[in-house]
Design brief:
The protein is mainly alpha-helical. It has helices spanning 2-25, 32-53, 69-86, 107-131, 141-145, and strands spanning 92-96, 102-106. The protein has one domain (2-15, 34-53, 66-145): dinb family like domain (Four Helix Bundle (Hemerythrin (Met), subunit A)), CATH 1.20.120.450. A two-stranded antiparallel sheet has the order 1-2. The protein is globular.
């Protein structure tokens, strides 16, 4: 199962990087909503890693400096990969959500969630890119596996 999640992390990191690069090259065309969603994707991944690692968390909707997005995405990937190697996927993580409510989930559930969450928002960004006259990236998993 860890190999499967490593594959999904690589897929997630790859398309987040491509999307960040597209944003950096087309900032003047991207909408503020797209920029906000892109930041939200990297923020949410960082937050989930921080909950597992008991580390400082970003704000859910904070806007990061444009030139830090690639680095944040890379750090997210490195931290998640380290978690996969060092921790048991069935380990239960107790955490507080952004509203202050207490929850607990396994690392496996958390990983599935933030990968799925990223995919969901990349789809929203694709729609917004098309509306802005840009060619959306095909970020489907099967497309990634073909290359």
């Amino acid at each position: 199962m860890k190999e499967h999640f490593q594959d999904l992390l690589e897929y997630n990191q790859h398309f987040n990087q491509l999307l960040i690069q597209n944003y950096l090259e087309n900032k003047m065309i991207w909408s503020e909503k797209s920029r906000s969603l892109l930041n939200h994707i990297v923020n949410a991944h960082q937050i989930w890693n921080a909950r597992i690692l008991n580390d400082n968390q970003f704000e859910v909707w904070q806007i990061n400096a444009d030139d830090s997005l690639i680095e944040i995405n890379s750090e997210n990937f490195i931290n998640s990969s380290k978690i996969l190697v060092e921790r048991d996927l069935n380990e239960i993580i107790n955490y507080q959500n952004s509203k202050g409510n207490q929850f607990e989930n396994s690392i496996q559930e958390i990983f599935f969630h933030f990968i799925n969450h990223s995919t969901y928002h990349r789809g929203q960004i694709a729609m917004l890119m098309k509306q802005a006259g840009l060619e959306p990236l095909n970020t489907d998993y099967i497309f990634y596996k073909r290359f």
